[in-house]
Amino acid sequence: MSPKKTPKVELTLPIIPDMELAAIKTAEVVAKHMDLDEEKSAEIGMALIEATINAFEHSESDSGNVEIHFVIQGDTLVIKVTDKGRGFDQANVKVPKIEEKLGSDHKRGWGLQLIQELMDTVEFESSPEGTTVTMTKKK
Ligand SMILES: Nc1ncnc2c1ncn2[C@@H]1O[C@H](COP(=O)(O)OP(=O)(O)OP(=O)(O)O)[C@@H](O)[C@H]1O
Ligand SMILES: [Mg+2]
User: What CATH number corresponds to the domain at position 73?
Assistant: First the structure.
């Protein structure tokens, strides 16, 4: 394959139980195609599952679809997860602290933190029309 090509894979997933598995399976295939090591492939899979489940659980999207785009740009994988839901303001999301979570009834709220730790770059664009999470991982 010509190195100038930027292969792209696009998924449109309806919000139905376990459909996030289609996203990680695709990520595994893309990572393998890029010859990424097992560890990076697993990190991408975990970040993607968090972003996809967030779109499924929190977007309250009317269309009920989540779009996932994978683009291979040289040795960098770019993944976009887009929903057409209600959006959110990242400034209003509290950064979780383990000491506080241990003594709290609300144990959740780790997804965004995890995504940022697992990927090289992460950007959120969100409005009342929906949310796009763009994340990258370099080989
Ligand atoms: N795609 C999205 N659309 C709307 N709100 C979102 C979206 N993604 C995240 N959020 C908001 O950001 C908050 C934090 O997300 P995060 O993934 O960190 O935690 P969580 O999903 O509540 O719990 P966990 O991921 O630990 O199970 C969510 O509770 C939700 O309010
Ligand atoms: Mg989450």
Answer: 3.30.565.10
The verdict on the CB of residue 45 being under 6 Å from ligand 1 is no
Residue numbers of the domain that contains 48: 8-138
Residues belonging to the chain: 139
Task: For ligand 1, say whether the CB of 130 is within 6 Å of any of its atoms.
Answer: no
Take atom 22 of ligand 1 and give the residue whose Cα is closest: 109
Q: How far apart are CA 46 and CA 35, in angstroms?
A: 18
Give the pair of three-digit tokens for residue 105.
């009834």
Within-domain flag for 126: yes
User: Has this prediction a pTM greater than 0.90?
Assistant: yes
Please state the φ and ψ torsions of residue 111, each to the nearest 5 degrees: -55, -50
pLDDT in tens, 71-125: 999 999 999 999 999 999 988 888 888 888 888 888 888 899 999 999 999 999 9
Confirm or reject: Cβ of 96 under 6 Å from ligand 1. Answer: no
Q: Which ligand is nearest to the CA of 58?
A: 1
Tokens 């289609």 found at: 22
